[in-house]
Description:
By secondary structure, the protein is α/β, with parallel strands linked by helices. It contains 15 helices and twelve strands. The strands form three sheets. It has a six-stranded mixed sheet, with helices on both faces. Helix 9 (280-292) runs parallel beside helix 12 and helix 12 (325-343) crosses helix 15 (375-383). Residues 376-395 are annotated as: Disordered.
Amino acid sequence: MSNRRSVALLIETSNAYARGLMDGIIAYQREHELWSIYVGEQDRGAKPPIWLKNWKGDGIIARIETEAIASVIRRTKLPVVDVSAARKIKSIPWVETDDREISRLAVEHLVDRGFETLAFCGEPNFSWSRWREQRFQDFAREAGCECHVFSGKSRGDEDYSWTKERKRLASWVEKLPKPAGLMACYDFTGQQVLDVCRELDIAIPEQLAVVAVDNDVRLCRLCTPPLSSVIPDTHRTGYEAAQLLDQMMRGKKVRDEAMLIPPLGIAERQSSDVYAIDDEDIVRALRYIRENACTGITVADVLNAVPLSRRMLEHRFQKLVRRTPHAEIVRIRMVRACRLLRETTLSLSEITNRAGFASPDYFSVAFKKYMGMTPRSYREKGKSSKPSRSHLSED
């Protein structure tokens, strides 16, 4: 026990993202049995805890979101890993979600449903919201979409009033061209958008499809309708932060640059479960493919589900979706295969079966052509320095 290090966690437990970070840190600690962990009461943006000033520990993992906490942490002169996007101390390593990939997933999700008008609703007082907003606009532009942005006022402003802010948001949402696909910077903002839409009698998802970020399952399911959300890999983020701190406490020099962890995917719920295509037959074909792609269907099966000739299906599908029906079947299968490779320890044969491919050999060739690497390389890249964990529930 004399070799056991003492590590402090300055991470709030009031939201799903922070709790996910702690789960990853705990997983690393249990795997290596290295530390005694001290967790005090901590709210987001709160003043530095009194105990930190004279704390005699070995290292800290913290969400450093204020100058006050940054100042106290500097004075400890202890090894520290930051897990906040605020980046208050530039000289220490930090581990954060990859906001570029989060925005890319959201744009892809909305564009795949046929939306040509996109919108972003953010909170400019948060770095991660500003980064997501910028990347969202970049990807929307690349997709040839019209893009609208709502930047909420900072809650720290002296004249901030949620009553006034809600009116601003409602006015902006009401004026958006419809139909549109909207990304909210995180789940709480997504809930606010849905509440405003309900008051304005805007149909969700038919007039406005909404996807947020963090996948706080309870909050997303409380929304009306249930809220789609990008799933950040908080478990891996926490685990990587713990591993970095362990290296630092052992005297190893680590880089102070960002380690950005990509998201796991999107939990699709009713708020974005729509195709913004004015063609009932193609919408029916898309739904059929999404629900059955991994059962081994072919384009012939899709033709049995819609009253179209193969030539007409191919023509209208290519025009509206910008892919062939076969390419869409393959895309859905690859999304499933990637998720299984990342999140499970299933054999290649079992993944082949669950993703709807004919054989492991065919799957390996198709995967390498589609992803630019073998399934084995993809799994190793995605799980490097990351413990095995139970599957994520699908909603």
